[in-house]
Write a structure and sequence with these properties.
The chain is α+β, with helices and mostly antiparallel strands and about 160 residues long. The strands form 2 sheets. Strands 3, 4, 5, 7 and 8 form a 5-stranded antiparallel β-sheet that branches. The protein has a 3-stranded antiparallel β-sheet with strand order 1-2-6. About 20% of the residues lie in helices and about 60% in strands. It has helices at about 1-20, 115-125; strands at about 30-40, 50-60, 65-80, 80-90, 90-95, 100-110, 130-145, 145-160. The longest helix has 21 residues, at about 1-20. The mean pLDDT is about 75. It is elongated. The chain starts with a helix and ends with a strand.
């Protein structure tokens, strides 16, 4: 009877360990770099700010199997208002327990300064402009002959420029 209980406990621990290691978890997504490329100001018919950023997003696969992503989308906002949206990478594959960096260019045309002028001037005077980022990744996790669909949403506040 003792051997039977020990075998059952060993089998249970083996199944629990396999489930823990093989259960898919969301990838870790982090905006690692955002660099201001250019700033332009148009005054006709109202004050409008044009911005261009180079961004790099790090996607880390924490699982013990590969991650194939179809799209990686990053949205950037300021003070709760969405400024621009970019989809980068065009898809790719991240090996098990590995990381990948995705580069993209975000162009914001027509940021109306009039609404956030006070806050923008205050942030520029401080030397820090807080931008909100919203990152989404869609793809598949692959283990042996199985694929599991994946959608991850990540919200980060703030990203500091200057």
């Amino acid at each position: 009877r003792c051997i039977l209980y020990s075998a059952a406990l060993f089998l249970f621990l083996l199944i629990a360990g396999a489930a823990f290691l093989l259960y898919p978890s969301d990838p870790e997504i982090r905006l690692t770099r955002i660099r201001l490329n250019r700033i332009g100001i148009r005054t006709n018919p109202r004050p409008i700010l044009d911005l261009s950023f180079s961004i790099t997003v790090k996607v880390h696969n924490r699982d013990f199997f590969s991650l194939t992503y179809d799209t990686l989308a990053v949205s950037v906002g300021y003070r709760g208002r969405q400024l621009g949206f970019v989809t980068g990478g065009g898809g790719g594959r991240i090996r098990a327990r590995g990381s990948s960096y995705v580069d993209a260019t975000l162009t914001i045309d027509g940021f109306e300064v009039i609404y956030d002028a006070f806050y923008l001037l205050e942030d520029i005077a401080k030397g820090v402009i807080p931008f909100d980022t919203d990152t989404r990744v869609e793809g598949k996790l692959g283990l042996f002959f199985f694929t599991v669909p994946l959608k991850v949403h990540f919200f980060s506040i703030p990203v500091v420029i200057f």
